[in-house]
Amino acid sequence: MKSLMQLTIVCIFLCGCNNVSTSSKDKENKTIGWEKIGPGGGGATFIPTFSYVNNEKFLVRCDMTGTYLTNDGGQSFTQINFPNGISSIAFDPNDSANVYIGSSALNHSADGGKTWQILFPKKEEIAKETFSGDHASYHMETTKESLYEQGAGGIGNIRIDPVSSAAIYFSMKNFFFYSIDKGTTWKKEDCKTPIEFIYTNKYNSKDEVFIFTGQSICIFNKKNKTFSEKKLPAAMSPSFSFTAGIAAKDKQEVFYVLHHDQKQEIEAEFGHSEVWMSTDKGNTWKQVDNSFIANVPAGIKPSYSMITCSELNAEQAYLVTNRYEEKKDTGFIYWYGAIKTNDAGKTWNWVWKGGGGSGQYGVKDGKGVDNLHDAWAEKAFGGEYIRLMDVGVSPNDGNTAIVTDWYRTMKTSDGGKSWNQVYSQPQTDGTFESNGMDVTTTYGVHFDPFDSNHIAISYTDIGYHHSFNGGKSWSRSVEGVPSEWVNTCYWIAFDPAVKNKVWSAWSGLHDFPRGKMTRNPKWKEAGRGGICVSVDAGKTWKPSNEGMGFDSPTTCVVIDPESPSDKRTLYASVYGKGVFKSTDDGKTWLLKNKGIDSNTCAFELTLTPKGDLFVTVSPTPVHRNGNKGREFYSGALYRSTDGAETWRKLQVADSLLFPNGIEYDPANPERIFLACWSDIDLSDLVGGDIARSTGGNERLKMPGGIFLSEDDGNTWKQVFDERQYVYDVTADPYHTGRYYANTFNRAAYRSDDNGKTWKRLKGYDFHWGHRAIIDRNDPEKIYLTTYGSSVWHGTPVGEE
User: Fold this and answer.
1) For position 625, what pLDDT does the model report?
2) Which ranges of the chain have pLDDT less than 50?
3) Residue 730 burial (CB < 10 Å; 0-12/13-18/19+)?
4) Is residue 328 exposed (0-12), middle (13-18) or buried (19+ Cβ within 10 Å)?
């Protein structure tokens, strides 16, 4: 997505550049040279977990691998990164400095989360670490002597014994692990079915550990190290979402579980749910008999997704619903949110209630949450169907809790009477500043050639955001963008000669070029998008896509800076259609695919100073006759030397190819760099169900890393580790011979010798990286865009 316009912008900004303002948040990241920028939030978060000692200290994870720690109640966050993200969190009830996080390994911090060590498996037991697949998933192989369960997923359900911190428990799928010596040695027990929850306390159950599965409770006796089992009643089996605690007054155990009525249709996580309770350690169970919980007036059981109680105040529990229907004269309306009990299930009331419309994503026919004090997300998405994703409650105080949804993390300190967002810092001018919780995918950072303080970010899910104070605070700007397109802004192009004129590429489908987006044969029918233009510096937009169609998910737009400023030549890549060209300032577009094969999933365009145009095309399923199957197209790289009138496929390697990004040498445009994905699985492209049912999954061998051509793309050689998943390469026009590469391998790299050798950048360890962008206001710094952690900004120092 580079063009000659880059060099023009360099000249403009060198004439009068200002340093980007530094955020006051995320202080610990700044000590290693990086801060995160953006409006904050923007994505789903999970597993909110409070310290036993301090309600102001809690952890949450996001679905994009990041974990976020706050010590001040959510005013600011520090990001902690583990490969693949995390699967469980535990604070030590006896020592607030001890924190445990489960990922592929069990990780321990003895200093409150500042530094981390792997506790299990031991380092000497780790034989091999690899990344593979479309998301470059991390895999750990251990020695035969290790108790680690290969293929069992991550470390789950960590619990530190409240009687003794030396006793640690966790699960890996069916297996229960325990240590009584702070993790020095371990033992495990096979519970036969996946473990969902682990609980113990220091009162009536101080000698027992309850291990919940969907069908039973396994009980581990701490004294004699024996196991027994209690089957759950058939009427509530299988169960899901377990929580447990003790009543504050009498210390009696209270167990809550959820169950979907098996007589009703269950679709994914949407079922017809029941709440069950036990107050005698699971010996007997009773379904909660409450007309509100059962939604008796509507005659349709709500769909509940999870329940959580306060561990030391179990009378207070929060119940999340993703579908609660209300009967009206015109039919049903849908609510979603959180319901609470303060008396161990006798009565229940809404504490978070949104919806009241059709319950459809993207349709603003409902209402927001009345008792929420929000930042920018309510204005952007309020009235739509916005599911709550998770809830966490303080173990000491049932009035303190966190709920999360698709975009936000919100906290209550008064039992749900009011909620306050903790993902962003609102500013007095109506803009928003990150507080360190950044949960968004970004593709580029874009610079206004006429205003050094005006910077834009192209985002997945939350569209286009821009800043007019050098990146300190941000506002969302999507006015005029069709609602069917507004999900993702893939790229921005400021006109280098016309003030306030901007083109943008939009799609209602996000996450291209990840293979998951095209597995469904009907993906093109759902795909909407196109080009928009702004003449007021991105404050408002207007579609500019005649000839392209409304159904054109567009991933890149490039301006030919040599074309007349009042009649620009533009190029756009449309995923599933190919390359479009406009010669009348974007008013009309023509498809230009001559020479491009059947695969038209065009992703990134790059125009060099000599006029050569390159396009990367991503692998995608064939979907012959509109049906799923094993067949797929390889990715490809094409070059045009005549303004996209004709294309020639370039032979990069004698194998399958997954090209992502192209870059050229500013000093010699015939030197071309190509960033590529490494091996993926067939299931990454066509789906696991199809791969299994048509002969089994298989590894698709592809050379990743970075290729270099020194003859304008005619021949290529590998100049980087072919096992790595490189998203893009970026030339630094301010430092001759310097390049950057960002990867999905938890690392970004810098080369100072024209790509011959590369050094990993210090302090950056996010799993899924996109591209590096040179800071036009401070050429000694760069921006790193990411797949799920917004934008990182800092000084790119290479490791020795």
Assistant:
1) 94
2) 4-31
3) buried
4) exposed
Amino acid code (one letter) for 475: S
Put the strands of the sheet holding 648-649 in their side by side order.
Answer: 602-607, 613-617, 636-640, 648-649
Cβ atoms < 10 Å from Cβ of 137: 16
> How far apart (Å, rounded) are the C-alpha atoms in residues 550 and 352?
37
* Res 3: pLDDT: 55
Whether residue 621 is preceded by a cis peptide bond, meaning omega within 30 degrees of 0, is no
The residue type at 100: Y
d(CA 493, CA 489): 11
- C-alpha torsion sign, points 698, 701, 705, 708: negative
> pTM to 2 decimals?
0.94
SS3 content of the chain, % helix, strand, coil (to 5): 5, 45, 50
Q: Which residues pair with 783 in a beta bridge?
A: 773, 793
Q: Which residue type sits at 46? A: F
* Cα-to-chain-centroid distance, residue 58: 20
Of the candidates 176, 210, 170, 179, the residue with the CA atom closest to the CA atom of residue 193: 176
Per-residue pLDDT at 9: 35
Instruction: State how far the Cα of 392 lies from the Cα of 395, in Å rounded to an integer.
Output: 9
d(CA 245, CA 252): 8
pLDDT confidence of residue 22: 33
- Calpha distance 466→339 (Å, rounded): 37
DSSP state of 83: T
Task: Single out the residue of 762, 59, 20 nearest to residue 457, CA to CA.
Answer: 20
Residue for token pair 């609510």: 335
Q: Which of 322, 160, 155 is nearest to 241 (CA)?
A: 322
Domain annotation for the chain: domains and CATH numbers: 5-24+429-794 (2.130.10.10)
Q: Which helix (H) or strand (E) holds 381?
A: helix 377-381
Distance between CA atoms of 402 and 70, rounded to whole angstroms? Answer: 13
